[in-house]
Amino acid sequence: MAAPAIARYPDLAERAVFISGGGSGIGAAFVAQFAAQGCRVAFVDIADAPSRALVAELGEERVRYFPCDVRDIEALRAAIAEAAAVFGPVTVLVNNAARDDRHEIAEVTPEYWDDNFAVNLRHHFFAAQAVAPGMAAAGGGAIINLGSVAWLRGRPNLAAYASAKAAIAGLTRVLAREYGERNIRVNSIMPGAVATARQLALWVTPSDEQRYLDSQCLKFRVSVDDVARAALFLASAEARAITGQSLVVDAGLAQTSFVP
Known about the structure:
Helix 3 (73-87) packs parallel to helix 4 (110-137). 46% of the residues lie in helices and 15% in strands. It is α/β, with parallel strands linked by helices.
């Protein structure tokens, strides 16, 4: 089924957007789609070549890339400050950076667990903390955290990752309550089995493709743009009364039986 045309959100034009993990996959779709709305987009990533290629494709006038490992909170804070200096106060934050490495429970060490949480959860809190004062001074904004349906489905070999993603739902609700009086909305998106290049290269076999379709309510593979559409809506004034929510974008996968 052909994807519909992307909706236009006029209120997003000229907004300053900060996206973590924006160099590839779902993150690159966020960068491209917010830029297409007329936003000024700054993003961080550790993958240098694809990040620079994305900026070259979209144009430096609207899109800037700052190399940064989100595990380094001081570097992340510095990148957010630099983005604000270039584009103005960040009024849309998309906490996207993540790494869904598989792991056997018996092989997980305390160091691995802590690193997994640093990649998949910790930076969400500190990026929100960093942008909140500027958002409030600008009259408000939107924070969008990226969760996952992995924890809803009890996916094996993902104990640390799924735990971090489950925590994002709780963090989102608390931040929504904390920041609501400053007109800052906080929501999360929980994607399902998204057909990214990384997933197809590392985890998904041809037989998996059919099993996902069989287990979804809707019979098409969820794309990166499907997730980006949800983010555009949540960032826009169309979602002005929506906060503290976790929006599942999975074609109904989490509602059906388990897919190994």
